[in-house]
Design brief:
The protein is α+β, with helices and mostly antiparallel strands. The protein contains 17 helices and 56 strands. Strand 11 and strand 12 form a beta hairpin. Helix 10 (about 475-495) packs antiparallel against helix 15 (about 570-580), helix 15 (about 570-580) crosses helix 16 and helix 16 (about 590-605) runs antiparallel to helix 17.
């Protein structure tokens, strides 16, 4: 249910400006995301034999593709330029870049590029270099130099990547590291709270302040430069723990502006087979086995055992005899005997919760074991036989076809955890978390997730991607990460099964997991689904599928699958692997990926006909230069490229207001206001003082907003007609939900698991709290109209905690709870007009998350559901706004399939619920609705791949 705001073009990839510090603060993103940024500095991989490649008859002419928003080329291909044969590969690579300064525009290559990784394949050398800005790592700044070294001579054959030439930001932080960690944890807690108030928030509230605070903890990872414009200096903070309300695991990467202390980027980095229900993490009980060391000291040779897979096939297993326990364990010692002597091990994680195993190594795990070397029924039913056998198959594929020793290319230990559950219930997902594969238990419809070779290949390939191009796991680069995992998983599976590429089911991923249905009914994806950018690309928030990493993946994997069908598996696999391992870099988008595959194909010396096949494969899926410009909308743009994430939009009195950065997204955010009819230029309302000016609201006369600085958080206001900026209040807590009407400012304060609605009248020095401000009561999600406030309330009774919607009269200070039709478990955003108060209500937690749209009279009586949650077609709603004539809900249709219809859209209802229509038929995510008057709404729309503030003066209809 999370939503966010903002795209920004970074190094040729449009990437989120920051992720929301609130689950439902709106926003959208396009481009990249985050996996791990860096590998080990200066690492030289073990030299391994090169593949046999037929050289081209003649060297192609040198091509130089310009970079986006940088003077350094994104790709230089087809050159053969002498380099220092006596220097190390990294020094030779940097020497080449320095010698060709006029081409690369890298002023100090030896100072600003540090060795990240060198891979040797016979005579071929691939050097990856990490960009630094005055010693500070640059997020996604990676440049690759490809060389040949033989016969005492060395030549450079090409380069590619992202080196950002416009960085000028200082490297001295104004915010202390402890403050950055505190704000990162606070932002994560606020995001988890979301735009709902839940009964779960009441659990153990009495005396639980310290326990709640300890539920999340942050660890500073040092300073980085986010490459937007002149650069944004930020602290990287990792927040771990559990969601205090739901108990779900949390692993969040947060970037805090080092000058103003505002979270400019926030995301979850776990790589799952399907879009997860929640990010996952936990607390380590002991360290995982290190990748560079054997899993145990027993040097005994491996044993050949057997087992039966879940499809009934009997397969050979490489296992080991544990002489002390007199049993055989699933430890494969044979495959890396000649290199690192590391192992492939399958661990029994049955009954372990996903929160215990995500990103950490849980204590007490045991390898799957059996008294006989022919493993029995228990190992089969758990999926252990499949996992252990399949891990060996994937290792063999990469070793045989690409001369790659394990996932990191250096013989790292491979660990598979099998049988994981979620809150004691079946877990139907699998993931790679940076150190191991984790496979869910499956359920009555799905076998354990290790029971399909392409799923195992998918997860292990995430490890390969992380140790090569390290494509950041969000937006386009994340979709490419998923696409490559799908491509190689599918390639390994189809080759092992002998499935022909023209088989109708050859493009399916996960089809062998079905227990009761046919393959097409339960497969997670189909690489042959024909997806294209023009028809299927969905601009979504980082909080939705990490920016569409699964939603948009088959656009890119489909092009690769077409290539494999047309030129054959062996050649296609070599082209794609070469592109991944030698050309791609972390911030690549779809067009960069196309260029990398084309360049790799030319490097392998394919024919002109085959090269045209490669081009046609990408063309058929709409991956061509400038494809983003063809995405259309049916709405009217008020402000384009609103590159501020999570700060929302509001409207009132025929004016809108929103935060916006500069074109590059590198400056702290400023507040603008403009006319709903689009006439006149937007007005800058806030000062350009280095603070982040966010969460603005207006009533058409005044704009109010929050200003985040290094040491304070102020609420400011300014008349739209012009005049001085006034500081209304300095808060010690985070805030959200700002609203203003006739000089009264309403907002919600968020402490550690405390939430209170407060208001300021004109001239007030301190706000008034509607609930008294105690720890036992929570109030949230306010709205205001005609001097009356509406908000959600969680309060104790003799029978336990209850939820209700309260109306507060500012004149009398009298609060009235509205009638409820049942027993709310969750309340969402409130809205109020001259006659009614509206709210989102969830009374049935057993459904898919549908919520009722509830209406009460202002005196609390006459409660009805104008859209009941139990009614067919009820929406999974996340936001609400109301006018005198209509209620607009940000909601999605229920369904487990990732598709356009299941994304947040705007739906408008009459105030009596007699009619429901879509506000806009735009494809992609639509968030932060704000009612204007009548049926007109403004909102933030991500259809085009940028975040735009748009409007419609009336609903679009049913949208087919």
């Amino acid at each position: 249910m999370t939503t966010f705001t903002a795209y920004q073009h970074v190094g040729g990839v449009r990437t989120v400006r920051r992720l929301s510090s609130r689950t439902q603060r709106p926003g959208i993103t396009r481009g990249t995301g985050l996996a791990a940024l860096l590998g080990a500095a200066g690492l030289l991989l073990t030299a391994i034999p090169a593949q046999a490649v037929t050289p081209p008859t003649a060297a192609p002419p040198g091509d130089v593709l310009p970079g986006a928003e940088t003077a350094t080329p994104s790709l230089v291909d087809g050159i053969r330029e002498a380099a220092d044969a006596k220097a190390s590969p990294a020094d030779a690579a940097r020497g080449h870049l320095a010698a060709k300064k006029s081409r690369y525009k890298i002023a100090e290559a030896r100072r600003d590029l540090t060795p990240l990784q060198t891979v040797k394949h016979g005579a071929e050398e691939t050097v990856r270099l990490q960009q630094k800005h005055h010693g500070i790592p640059v997020f996604g700044g990676q440049y690759v130099v490809r060389m040949e070294s033989k016969g005492g001579k060395r030549v450079v054959t090409g380069t590619s990547g992202k080196y950002f030439t416009g960085l000028k930001t200082g490297t001295t932080a104004s915010v202390g590291e402890d403050t950055a960690v505190r704000r990162a944890v606070s932002a994560t807690a606020a995001r988890l709270g979301g735009k709902t108030l839940s009964k779960a928030d009441a659990v153990h509230r009495k005396g639980a302040k310290s326990a709640k605070a300890a539920a999340l903890s942050g660890t500073a990872g040092g300073l980085v430069v986010i490459p937007r414009g002149e650069g944004v200096l930020a602290y990287h903070v990792t927040v771990r723990g559990t969601n205090p309300s739901t108990g779900e695991p949390v692993l969040q990467q947060v970037y805090i502006d080092a000058h103003a202390g505002f979270p400019v980027l926030q995301f979850s980095g776990i790589k799952t087979l399907t879009a997860p229900n929640a990010a996952a993490s936990g607390t380590a009980a002991k360290a995982a086995p290190k990748a560079g060391a054997p899993a145990e000291d027993d040097p005994a040779a491996g044993v050949k055992g057997t087992g039966v897979k879940l499809d009934g096939a009997k397969v050979g297993l490489d296992v080991r005899l544990d002489t002390a326990a007199n049993q055989y364990v699933m430890i494969d010692s044979s495959r890396m005997t000649a290199t690192t002597k590391n192992t492939l091990t399958t661990w029994d994680a049955r009954g372990r919760d996903v929160s215990e195993v995500s990103g950490v190594w849980p204590g007490g795990l045991k390898e799957f074991a059996d008294p006989a070397k022919d493993f029995g029924k228990g190992a089969t039913e758990a999926g252990a036989v499949d996992a252990h056998w399949a891990a060996g198959q994937v290792y063999d594929y990469y070793r045989k076809n690409h001369a790659r020793d394990s996932l990191d290319g250096r013989g790292m230990t491979i660990n598979s955890l099998v049988g994981v559950t979620e809150f004691g219930s079946p877990y139907v997902n699998a993931f790679w978390d940076g150190q191991k594969m984790v496979y869910g238990s499956g359920d009555e419809e799905y076998k354990p997730l290790s029971a399909d070779l392409d799923v195992v290949g998918h997860e292990m390939t995430h490890g390969v991607v992380e140790n090569t191009a390290n494509l950041v796991y969000a937006g386009q680069s994340g979709a490419m990460n998923e696409a490559l995992a799908d491509y190689f998983g599918n390639a390994i599976d189809t080759a092992a099964s002998g499935t022909a590429m023209d088989d109708p089911d050859s493009g399916l991923v996960g089809e062998d997991l079905c227990r009761t249905t046919k393959p097409r009914a339960c497969a997670f994806r189909n690489l042959n689904d024909g997806a294209s950018t023009s028809k299927n690309f969905l601009g979504v928030a980082f909080g939705t599928d990490n920016g569409g990493v699964h939603l948009n993946s088959t656009i890119f994997s489909g092009a690769l699958w077409d290539l494999r069908q047309d030129v054959g598996g062996e050649l296609a696999d070599r082209i794609v692997y070469k592109a991944l391992s030698e050309y791609m870099t972390p911030l690549d988008g779809f067009t960069d990926g196309r260029n990398a595959v084309l360049a790799a194909a030319k490097d392998l010396g394919i024919t002109a006909h085959q090269l045209n096949v490669v081009k046609r494969s990408f063309n058929a899926h709409g991956i061509v230069p400038g494809w983003e410009d063809a995405l259309g909308v049916d709405s009217d743009q008020l402000l384009g490229k609103v590159n501020t994430a999570g700060t929302g939009a509001q409207a009132g009195g025929d004016w809108w207001t929103v935060s916006q950065s500069n074109d590059e997204g590198s400056e702290p955010y400023s507040v603008y206001a403009g006319r709903i009819d689009g006439k006149g230029a937007p007005k800058l309302m806030s000062p350009n003082d280095g603070r982040y000016h966010v969460y603005p609201a207006t009533d058409g006369k005044t704009v109010v907003w929050a200003a985040y600085g290094a040491t304070s958080l102020d609420i400011l206001s300014r008349p739209i007609a012009g005049g001085p900026i006034k500081k209304l209040y300095t808060s010690t807590s985070d805030i959200s939900g700002l609203r203003v009407e006739n000089g009264v400012v309403v907002f919600e304060t968020l402490g550690f698991f405390e939430r209170h609605v407060q208001y300021l009248r004109s001239g007030d020095r301190q706000p008034t709290t509607v609930d008294g401000g105690g720890f036992e009561i929570l109030t949230a999600l306010p709205s205001i109209k005609n001097g009356k406030l509406a908000y959600a309330k969680l309060y104790p009774t003799s029978a336990g905690y209850k939820l209700g919607v309260e109306v507060y009269d500012l004149k009398t200070a009298k609060a009235t709870l509205t009638e409820q039709l049942g027993e709310p478990e969750v309340l969402g955003q409130t809205g109020i007009n001259s006659s009614y108060v509206f709210s989102l209500v969830d009374e049935n937690l057993a459904d898919d998350g549908q919520m009722s749209v509830r209406r009460s009279d202002l005196d609390g009586t006459g409660t009805v559901d104008i859209s009941p949650e139990r009614k067919p077609g009820a929406l999974i709603s996340s936001d609400l706004t109301s006018s005198e004539e209509a209620v607009t809900v940000n909601g999605a249709l229920p369904g487990t399939a990732l598709r356009n219809e299941s994304l947040p859209k705007l739906w408008q209802l009459t105030t009596n619920g007699s009619r429901r229509e879509r506000v806009s038929c735009n494809r992609g995510e639509q968030v932060s609705p704000a009612a204007v008057s009548g049926r007109q709404v403004v909102w933030i729309d991500g259809t085009t791949g940028w975040t735009d503030l748009v409007t419609r003066d009336r609903p679009a209809g049913l949208c087919g």
